[in-house]
């Protein structure tokens, strides 16, 4: 069997990562998609950092995810193309080492907030969480990612169709080069 192609789509919350990943499933055959959000710890009180002033937990840190469980799910995939999607995937060195190509979505704070307030989070996100925790965590992650040479940035302002076509073109190029 040929080597599995591992595509990572990471970046800002509400930047289109999940939608792009789901569009890829309609474009390619023999593809699997794993969403990092599916690997949040179920007993989050035991794993997530507490934010007492908000009576909430820090969901926007890698420690919120059971990455060992995600790695086990990755290891069980047999498709030719595996897409990994999530906000903090590259904070786990194992994902970084698996990636054949990485895409990172970016947005400015105002647009991210405008999109984020339309979503329903469980548990509900308290006022102040985005400004005090979610956005600063994204900015720290972005600074780390900008130091890497092999990341393709996608502008979250661009249409989903445009960003999907960028990803599809890169995947097709990788597939052609692997033959």
Quick recap of the structure?
The protein has helices spanning 17-25, 67-75, 93-98, 109-116, 129-146, 160-177, and strands at 5-11, 31-35, 50-51, 56-57, 81-86, 101-106, 151-155. It has 179 residues and is of the alpha/beta class. 29% of the residues are buried.
Label this structure with key terms.
single chain, 179 residues, alpha/beta, 5-stranded parallel β-sheet, two-stranded antiparallel sheet, 18% strand, globular
What does this structure look like?
- The chain has helices at 17-25, 67-75, 93-98, 109-116, 129-146, 160-177, and strands at 5-11, 31-35, 50-51, 56-57, 81-86, 101-106, 151-155.
- By secondary structure, it is of the alpha/beta class.
- The strands form two sheets. A five-stranded parallel β-sheet has the order 2-5-1-6-7, with helices on both faces. A two-stranded antiparallel sheet has the order 3-4.
- β3 (50-51) and β4 (56-57) form a beta hairpin.
- α1 packs across α6 (160-177).
- The model has no long low-confidence stretch (mean pLDDT 92).
């Amino acid at each position: 069997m040929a080597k599995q192609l591992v595509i990572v789509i990471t970046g800002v919350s509400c930047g289109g990562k999940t939608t792009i990943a789901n569009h890829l499933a309609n474009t390619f055959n023999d593809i699997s998609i794993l969403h990092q959000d599916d690997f949040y710890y179920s007993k989050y009180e035991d794993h997530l950092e507490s934010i007492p002033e908000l009576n909430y937990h820090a969901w926007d840190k890698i420690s919120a995810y059971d990455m060992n469980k995600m790695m086990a799910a990755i290891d069980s995939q047999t498709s030719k193309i595996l897409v990994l999607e999530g906000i903090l995937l590259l904070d786990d060195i194992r994902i970084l080492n698996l990636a054949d190509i990485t895409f990172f979505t970016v947005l400015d704070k105002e647009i991210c907030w405008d999109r984020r307030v339309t979503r329903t989070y469980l548990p509900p996100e308290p006022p102040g969480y985005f400004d005090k925790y979610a956005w600063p965590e994204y900015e720290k992650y972005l600074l780390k990612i900008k130091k890497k040479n092999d990341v393709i940035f996608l502008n979250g302002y661009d249409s989903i169709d445009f960003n999907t076509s960028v990803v599809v073109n890169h995947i097709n190029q990788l597939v052609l080069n692997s033959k």
